[in-house]
Amino acid sequence: MNDTLLVRILASIALQAAPLMIAVTGETLTERAGVVNLSLDGKMLMAAMTGFVVAYTTGSLILGFLAAALVGALFALIVAFGSITLKHNQVAIGFVLTLLGADLSAFLGQNFTRLPGPSVGKFAVPYLKDLPVLGPIFFNQNAIFYFAILLVAAAWWWLFRTQPGLHLRGAGERPEAAFARGASVTRLRYLYTVLGGALVGVAGASYSLGIKIGWSEGHTAGLGWIALAIVIFGGWSPARGALGAVVFGATKSLATVFQQNVQGVSVVAFNTLPWLLMIGVLLLVSSDWVARVANLLPPRLRGGFLRLVQVTPPRALGVEFGQE
Amino acid sequence: MKVVPLLKRIWPLMPVLASLAFILALLLIFGADPATAFQALWQGAFGSRDRLLGTLAFWIPLALCAIGLMLTFTAGLWNIGVEGQLILGSIGASWVALNLKGQPAWVLIPLELLAAMAAGALWAALSALLKTRGKVHEIFSGLALTNLAIILTNYLISGPWQPPEGGSFRGTQPFQEAALLPRLFDSRFSPLSLVLMSIALVIVAVLLGNTTWGLKLKALGRNSRSAFLLGVSSEREAVIAMMACGALAGLGGAVRVLSWFDSLRQSISGGIGFLALLVVMLSAYRMFWVPFVAFFFSAVLQGSITLQLRTQLHSSLGGILTGVLVLLTLLFGDYNHLRRLRKESRPDE
């Protein structure tokens, strides 16, 4: 029962979702503070390359992850400096960094492509791993999976249950009010942009050191863009973002599983899934159609349904704030 | 007091020098001889007649996309999907080339170009409608549609359009000679494509500079709410601007399959759509600079292919040079902006 195809698929979905969860959490923190960091995809490529190359040359996974986090933080710092201090368009800077990250990672990693290297291993949680079904899915997992789950929980708690979290949301929701209460919006935005960037860096490294081990040009294959869409689908909440990550992780593992086990299923159909899903979920959370559907429901359920499906961005997301 | 105007005048050169210094550092780290590398870069772009024609041939679709993007940027739209619109253009042109057999060139070529423009416009319209009707940001729809276009290309190449000798995942069979654009000296450069690009440039420049429609787009770009109050239907203008951009990108895609290659290939776009976005940013969203900046990009990217052949260094170096240049120009290129910021932070001076 613990080794059926279904259990193996579910375990693989959980693992595929882990780097996405980490990246989504990082970007969610950044956007909650009011900054859109569009450079996600380039940052993940740079971090995936850096993480693998450093771990490969030093033999230390920890150093690999640290270096990747540093690269992610550095890219984020450029976005923060450009948009907060120099007051330029966030989207433009983020987009240039995305392309630059792709080229730079291809160049810097050129001598390290397709090499076998160190990787993060499985870690079985004592006792819990023997649970039927749940054991192999959740408690005999790659260490990256545990990190992702703990991170999502910690970020959710920080955002919605602590005083600093309230300040953080204030910077993205009503910066004038947060500033009036004595919070430095500029400092908060810098802090969470860089922190979010570091987490995205960790996500990139966890992909090249835990999921698809090694480095090749364009290694993370659009994962950063998918993470950006999940942040919206997740309504800027780490918990709902994690759910989104699982849905997208599922499309990836299902493609792999079906290709190996079912004859005649077109690879093409599965490759289109994440992108169709991306459009689909964004339509679901933001289009007016959903509200129209809601009107068909009994009034008692309407509000709850809309709250469940639709999302509102932080009010000052991407809006410049000059406090000096 | 003479120092400041001089500084102001040479200021835009600073990012150029800084990005060259960045490339120099990378070359030294990777143990390449900078003189050899820069020479290879230059010769790859301009070193011989064929190379110069190659640079021109790469320039045309890039400029076409960038010209189209001037419309969407003016309307305040981030048409990142231009890459996919170019790919759809390639597919549209290939569809005509592969299906209309035995027709003369004067029938085939106009039909190919029209099909390419229609396909590009269609892909752009999807993005635009998702935005206006579905409130999905054009960055996401554009990106998803680009990836779908890539998957569609791979499907066509390995499936219905595979060469008779079997699918190789690399490309379709070469098109009939009459379907290809006439090319200069057996190169990849087609003079006709240059004519088309020049016409597009003039039309878009006039549209933006001298028509009410251009004004409407500008109003839309500044503030979509005030444009709405002024009576500009933001939905209609946005959809039209996107479709016009898609059509020009599609034309660029046709040039890719009918003159750069002679068939539909796996990576047909060569990243031209994404590059075009950088071209427009570096041109500071001004039409005058677009063709020149696009030409510069084309030269750097063609040069970096020769660089890879001669020094074994990855050709992404060209992309790094242009990327760093655009980044530094965005951040520090505007002298007056920096001065203003400094004044604001020190109000007592």
Name the descriptors.
heterodimer, A: mainly alpha, ABC transporter involved in vitamin B12 uptake, BtuC, B: 349 residues, mainly alpha, 15 helices, globular
Characterise this structure.
The complex is a heterodimer of chains A (324) and B (349). Chain A contains 14 helices and 2 strands. With 324 residues, chain A is mostly helical. Chain A has one domain (5-309): Orthogonal Bundle (ABC transporter involved in vitamin B12 uptake, BtuC), CATH 1.10.3470. In chain A, helix 2 (40-58) crosses helix 9 and helix 7 crosses helix 9 (185-211). The radius of gyration of chain A is 20 Å and the shape is globular. The mean pLDDT of chain A is 86. Chain B has 349 residues and is mostly helical. Chain B has a single domain (51-332), classed as ABC transporter involved in vitamin B12 uptake, BtuC. Chain B has helices spanning 3-10, 13-29, 34-46, 49-74, 82-99, 105-132, 138-158, 191-210, 212-222, 224-229, 234-260, 272-282, 290-311, 316-332, 335-345. Chain A binds chain B through residues 38, 78, 81-82, 85-89, 91-93, 95-97, 99-100, 102-104, 106-107, 110, 222, 225, 228-229, 232, 268, 271-272, 275-276, 278-279, 282-283, 286-289, 322, 324, and chain B through 26, 78, 80, 130, 133-137, 139-141, 143-145, 147-148, 151, 154-155, 159, 274, 277-278, 281, 313-314, 316-317, 319-320, 323-324, 326-327, 330-332, 337-338, 341, 344-345.
Count the DSSP helices of chain A.
14
CATH fold-level topology of chain B: ABC transporter involved in vitamin B12 uptake, BtuC
H/E topology pattern of chain A: HHHHEHEHHHHHHHHH
Spatial separation of the terminal alpha carbons of chain B: 17 Å
